[in-house]
Amino acid sequence: MRKELASLLSEIGRRVIPTPAERRRMEELSSALLERTQKTVETARLDGIASLQGSMAKDTWLHGQADLDVFVQFPPSVERSEWTDRVLPLLRKEFNDYQVIERYAEHPFLELITIDNVRVNVVPCYRVEKGKWLSATDRTPYHKEYMNSKLTEETRLQARLLKRFCMGIDVYGAEIKVGGFSGMLAETLALYYKSFPKLLVSAGQWKTSSVIDIEGVYEGRLGEARKKFQDNPLVVVDPVDPERNLAAALRSERLWSFVAASRELLERPGKQFFYPGPFRPRTTADIRRKMRLSGADILAVSFQHQEMVPDILWGQLYRLEGALTELLERNEFQVVRSKVWSDEEKRSAVLFELHEASLPPMVVRQGPPVERLTESRSFIVKHATAKDTVRGPWIEGERWMVEKRREFRSADDFLRTVVGARKMNISLPSHLEPGLSNRARYLLNEKIVQLVGTDRGFREAFWTFIEGKPRWLKAS
Amino acid sequence: MRKELASLLSEIGRRVIPTPAERRRMEELSSALLERTQKTVETARLDGIASLQGSMAKDTWLHGQADLDVFVQFPPSVERSEWTDRVLPLLRKEFNDYQVIERYAEHPFLELITIDNVRVNVVPCYRVEKGKWLSATDRTPYHKEYMNSKLTEETRLQARLLKRFCMGIDVYGAEIKVGGFSGMLAETLALYYKSFPKLLVSAGQWKTSSVIDIEGVYEGRLGEARKKFQDNPLVVVDPVDPERNLAAALRSERLWSFVAASRELLERPGKQFFYPGPFRPRTTADIRRKMRLSGADILAVSFQHQEMVPDILWGQLYRLEGALTELLERNEFQVVRSKVWSDEEKRSAVLFELHEASLPPMVVRQGPPVERLTESRSFIVKHATAKDTVRGPWIEGERWMVEKRREFRSADDFLRTVVGARKMNISLPSHLEPGLSNRARYLLNEKIVQLVGTDRGFREAFWTFIEGKPRWLKAS
After folding, report:
1. Residues A237, A212: contact at Cβ < 8 Å?
2. Contact A394/B469, CB-based, under 8 Å?
3. What is the ipTM of this complex?
4. How many Cβ atoms from other residues are within 10 Å of residue B449's Cβ?
5. Residue A369: beta bridge partners?
6. Is residue B240 a contact partner of residue B143, using CB atoms and an 8 Å limit?
7. How far off is chain A from B101, nearest CA to CA, in Å?
8. B83-94 burial code (b ≥16 CB/10 A, e <16)
9. Tell me, what's the pLDDT at A1?
10. Across residues A416-440, what is the average pLDDT?
11. How far off is chain B from A91, nearest CA to CA, in Å?
12. Residue ranges of domains in chain A, CATH in brackets
C-alpha cells in the first residue's frame, strides 16, 4: 500500500468511528425503544421478542449515520394479521412522542423519527431455523449473530471504511433507488478480504460473475453458484443462507462503478472518494454556459405525483425511464443517457440526453421483401401515391423501401403529444400516469433552466447530469 | 389474361418484330462480315470457322436493336496468342472501313461500328465438346443450336416481348453496369413458360432461390442445384451446361424489380413497362423545387477518369460506391440510398441520399468493459481530461462511455478531406483514385445543381435519383 493511501485511510478511519458520546446516546435510545416495544408486544399477549438488529447491533455503523433497527421475532404460529391488526396499532399509540410513519415492505412496519433525526425501523420477523425462512426479514438476526461472532475491532474498521467509500461514490444501499451495496454485503466483503486496501486491489480485478463464498459452501463447485445466480453480475454467498446472493440487488452499473473507483482510489488516493463534499452551488448562467459548451440536446420530463414508499416510487420511476427511452428510440430519437430525479415527495423528473432532439423531415421505412406477394401489394397500395410519401417506394436488395414525411420532428413535441395527450396507446407506470398527462412539462435544452430554480436537489441532479462524469474520477 | 393486357401485348408485339427491310439489311451486312472474317482467318493460315451468333442468329433480336455477333471457332490446338498476335491485326486492317474499337473480356475482341450505328462484335472461341469448355465464349454456339432447335415463331415473339419488358424496366443485360437478364436468360425463360403473360404470373410468385431447370437435369434433386448456386437469388440452369446458372450475374435488386414489375404489369397494364418514353426535360428550377420538397440531404461526388472498358469502369464505380458508403457510415453519416452515374467516357459521379448531411457537435464513443483492467486504464488516461472530451467518461451498464467533439460535422467536408485530401488511409479503386484526389467535387444539395447543366445524362440520372421511384410504378 502506498504511503499516501495509508495516511488517507487513517484519516478517514478517525472520521468514520462513532464518538463515545454518540455511542452513549444511541445505546440509551435503543434500550429505551427495545423496552417499550417489548412491553407493547406483551400487552398484545403475543409471544414476541424485541431485539436490536442492523449496523448498530453489529457495531458497524458510521459516525453521524445512526439508524436503528428494532426487530420483533415471533414464533411461526403467529399469524401475520396479528402483527398488523393487534401490534401495530398499539405501537403507534406507544410511540406517539415520535413522528411515526407507516411503511410497507413484505409486511407493514413502522418508522419512527426522533427529534435529533435518528430514524428507527420497528420490523416484525419470524423466529425460525436457518433455511426455513418464512419472511424476508428472518435472516437478519442470523446475520447479526454471524457478524458478531466473526468481526474484530480491526475488521469493523475496514467495514466502516468500505461503507463510507460506497457512500462517497454513490453505490451504498440495496434499495431500488440505488441498487447498490447493502450493509450486510459490505460487512461480508470486509470480513472476506480482511483489509479495505486488499479489497480494493481484488475488486479492481473482478470479472463478470465473480463468486465470493466466505464460508466455502460451494467449494469445488463454484460453477454451480455461478449458474444459480447467473443473472447477477457479482455473487457473494450469504454466510447464513447458501441459497441467497447478498449482491442480488446490485445493478451492473453500480458494481462496475465500484470496480472502477476501487482502481482509481488505489492510483490517485483522495478524500473525495469518501466525502465528495457538498455540491458547489451553480448559477443559472453557469448551467446555460455548460449546456452550450457541451452541445448535446437535453430533454426533461417533469411531473407531479402522489407520495409513495420510496421503493415503489423508484420502481415506477425506473420503469417510466425505460418506457420513455423505448418510445423515443422507436421514433428514432436516439437516447445517449438518461437519469431519474425525485424529491421523493411529490415531484420527479426524467432527464434524457439525446443524440439529436430534432430529426430530418422524412423517415425511411423498410417494407416487406418483394417475394411476399400480399404484403408487397398492400405496401404499394398504401404508399405509392400517398400524400405523406416523400420518395419511392423503391426496391433495395430484396425489399421494398419508402420515405415518409416524419410525424414528429422534435422530441419534446413528440412526448408532449404521445405521452401528455395520450395520442398513442402506451402503457405507463400506474402511479405516475395521472401526473404525466396533467400539467407535466416536456422541456428542451434552455427551457429546462426554468425548472432549476424550483429545487436545489434538481439543480444538483441536472448539473451532475450535464457534466456526466463521476465526481470521484479526476484522472489526469 | 385480361383483355387490356392482351391488347397491349399485341400492340407491343407488332413493335418488337424487325421489319422485312430491316431483316434484309442485317442479313446482307452479316453475310458480308462473315465472309470477310472467314477470309482473314484463312489468310492467317489458321483453322477457324466464322459464324453468326447471338440474337440475330437465333432470330430473337428486336426491331431497332440490331447488334451482330460474329464468332470465330478455333480447335483447341490453337494458342490464344495466335488470335491476339496474328488474327486481330489482320482483322483491324480488313475492317478499316468501319470504326474499330479493341475491347477486352476473357480475351481481346473487336467491336465494329457501322455508319448506320450497328454494333458488331468479332469474338474468338474454341470448338469443343459440351462440358469441355476452354473459354467463357465456347457455350455460345451451343446456345444458338439449342435455341434454334426449340424456338418457334410464337415463342420467339414471347422472347421478344420479354426482352422489351426487361429493357423497359431497366433490367436488361448481364454486363456489370446492369447485372440484369442476359439475352440467353430471357430466351430460356420464354421457352420454359411458353407465354409471356404466364411468365409474368409465375415470376410474380418467385421466391428467393427459385430453380428453373428447363431440361430437367436436376429432376428429383433440385436441392442440389439450389446448393450449387446458393449465392444467386435466382437459378436458371443453362440447358447446354448443367454446371452453369444463366442468372449468375443477376443482382438481387434487378431480380426483385423484375418480380415487382411483373405483378404490376398484370394489375395495371401500360405501355411504359416496355417503352418508358424519353426523359421529360427538367429545368434547374424544377430540380431545386423537387429537392426542397423532398427535404433529404443529397451528396454528390463528381470526378474525371481515364476511359475504360465498361465492365471495368462499372466494376470500379460500384466498388467506389461501396467504399464511400462504408466510410460515411463508419462516421455516422447514414446512407439511405446511393447511385452511380457515368458518361462512360471520362466523367462519373456517385450520388448519396443521407439521413442527415450535418451531424451534432459531439460523438458518443463506447469504451471497453470496466472489467478489462488495461483497456479501462488507457481509456481513462486518454479521455478523462482530454481537450476534445465533451462529457464523461461515465459507466453505462458494464462499459465505459465518453462523448468526444466530432471531427467532421458535415458529409461533404468529411469526404473532401478524407478522400480528396487523403487524410485517412483508405483504399480506393485504382483507376479512379487519381481523379478523386485531383479536382474531384464534393457537393451538397443545392450545390449539385451546378453539375446538372454539364450533361443531359447526369441531369436525368439526378432527377431519377431524387424521385427515387421506378418509372413503371404508378399504382393508384
Report:
1. yes
2. yes
3. 0.88
4. 17
5. A399
6. yes
7. 35
8. beebbbeebbeb
9. 64
10. 86
11. 43
12. 21-148 (3.30.460.10), 151-273 (1.10.1410.30), 284-358+409-467 (3.30.70.590), 362-405 (3.30.70)
